[in-house]
Amino acid sequence: MSADNMANWRTGIAEVVSTETEEEVLIRGRKLSELIGSLSFAEMMFLLLTGREPTKPQARVLDALLVASIEHGIAPPSMIARCYASYGTSIQAAMAGGIMAFGDTMGGAGEQLAKMLSEAAAGLDVDPSDDALRQLAADIVGRGGRIPGYGIPLHGADPRSPKMLSVAREEGCFGTHCRLAELIEQEIERTTGKSIPLNLDGVGAVVILDLGFPWQLTRMFLITPRSVSFAAHYYEEQQQGTKWRHLAADDITYES
Ligand SMILES: CC(C)(COP(=O)(O)OP(=O)(O)OC[C@H]1O[C@@H](n2cnc3c(N)ncnc32)[C@H](O)[C@@H]1OP(=O)(O)O)[C@@H](O)C(=O)NCCC(=O)NCCS
């Protein structure tokens, strides 16, 4: 039977157990009935994704990132969720609509930074010197172009980034990628003369890399907490009773 046949699935993530003597769900080999009430959501995410329970410091850093990422006001993704409420769609459609708005230019730039830095750091020694990191930061900025994960139109400097880096530092989870992020920020300022600070996408990227996650998961760490925000915006909009959010006709320019 070929490996991609629909009747052939393999997983190390979970196993549903239903026998005469036991009803259980095993997640990464651990009994869900024992994890319920003993692991936090952040710890459970870590276990599910990696197969390992995080240390307490790692769990605190991941939890802090989930908190940092949960809400950012009325912005394009939450506007979409609110519009869905206004049009009478379901809560899951509104949440999915908000999630799908995240892309390369808005909300998704962390993935580009995480890929870039994990590839760049792969060529470094296990415990690189600050000089080696400074050189790498100069090389990255020297390639030109906008560095994903830096700059944010809604703030002078994103208040979430320094706080996240300080939690990572306090907990001993501030590693090569977090340091590189700081050095890139300094290098951008040195070469452009402008302060273009690390944004939430960027700090999320380096924090999850230093926690040991692969770059491919980066966006999930923003989308998961933000989906709660979409539900909150959906519900609030519903309570406000709007029925058909739309533009006035004269806001639209018709081109012939
Ligand atoms: C987010 C972003 C669009 C905000 O833009 P903005 O605050 O309106 O800033 P501007 O687009 O006016 O850029 C101002 C200057 O800073 C530079 N700049 C802005 N972001 C930069 C970055 N990430 N790296 C290097 N230079 C950057 C621009 O080149 C520009 O210089 P110029 O006027 O000489 O061309 C922009 O910073 C960016 O493209 N960032 C990278 C992508 C990203 O992280 N997006 C997530 C946003 S939530």
Structural notes for this entry:
This protein has 256 residues and is mostly helical. The chain has 2 domains: 38 residues, no CATH class; 191 residues, Cytochrome p450-Terp, domain 2 (Orthogonal Bundle). Helix content is 54%, strand content 5%. The protein is built from 11 helices and 3 strands, in the order βββααααααααααα. A 3-stranded antiparallel sheet has the order 1-2-3. α3 packs antiparallel against α8, α5 packs across α11 and α9 runs antiparallel to α10. The longest helix is centred in the C-terminal third of the chain and has 23 residues. It is globular, with a radius of gyration of 22 Å. The termini are far apart. The structure holds coenzyme A (COA). Coenzyme A (COA) binds next to α9.
